[in-house]
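To the wet lab folks,

You asked to see what we're planning to order before we commit. Fair enough. Below is the target structure as tokens, and below that is the sequence we designed to fit it. If anything looks off to you, flag it before the synthesis order goes out.
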């Protein structure tokens, strides 16, 4: 539905097995409560630090950078703020499909206890509906701002729906709607720049 919020972890204390749990948003509790304007669901949920950068990627291949503390805080039952109030440059016709929390270089070094930048050997891997895939060094997004940057060049009938931070040594497993799958080592995928289209990850049959 295009809403976003930030909550302290302390609002969710540990609970025993079999308990009912607590409401984490003001979504309707049943389908009978739904109206056209209330149809909504939780799309992304993750933990991060206030000074982490949120890499927010849209289906049109545009990435926006936002510090976590810039997301307004809200209570457990609150709906949150409309994303355009936090990212005024995002077009109304575009949809955020992935949000990746990226630790800052300073916090990464502090957590790892080393001198090397923990992000230097990481990549952002992106896959599209039409089977294209690419990996771009994470450092290419260090200066990302709320104005947005092109993260992939897409065809008109393609959408960017999946992003993940990976590193060489990881494997990539891709599955299609029609039940086909392929797996390969990330190291075999050549790094490309921000605006590249990438390469074919798997050959899709018509309608897949």
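Sequence we intend to order:
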């Amino acid at each position: 539905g295009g809403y976003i919020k930030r909550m302290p972890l302390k609002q969710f204390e540990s609970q025993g097995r079999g308990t009912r749990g607590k409401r984490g948003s003001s979504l309707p509790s049943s389908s009978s409560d739904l109206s056209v304007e209330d149809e909504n669901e939780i799309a992304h949920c993750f933990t991060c630090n206030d000074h982490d950068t949120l890499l927010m990627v849209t289906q049109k291949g545009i990435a926006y950078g936002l510090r976590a503390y810039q997301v307004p805080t809200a209570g457990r039952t609150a709906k949150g703020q409309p994303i355009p109030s936090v990212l005024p440059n995002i077009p109304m016709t575009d949809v955020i499909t992935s949000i990746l929390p990226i630790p800052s270089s300073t916090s990464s070094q502090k957590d790892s206890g080393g001198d090397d930048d923990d992000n230097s050997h990481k990549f952002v891997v992106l896959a599209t509906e039409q089977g294209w895939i690419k990996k771009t060094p994470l450092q290419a997004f260090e200066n990302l701002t709320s104005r947005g940057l092109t993260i992939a060049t897409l065809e008109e009938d393609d959408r960017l729906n999946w992003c993940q931070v990976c590193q060489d040594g990881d494997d990539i497993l891709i599955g299609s709607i029609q039940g086909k799958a392929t797996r390969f080592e990330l190291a075999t995928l050549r790094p490309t720049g921000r605006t590249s289209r990438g390469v074919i990850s798997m050959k899709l049959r018509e309608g897949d």
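Structural context that might help your review: The chain has a mean pLDDT of 85. The chain has two helices and twelve strands.

Thanks,
Computational group
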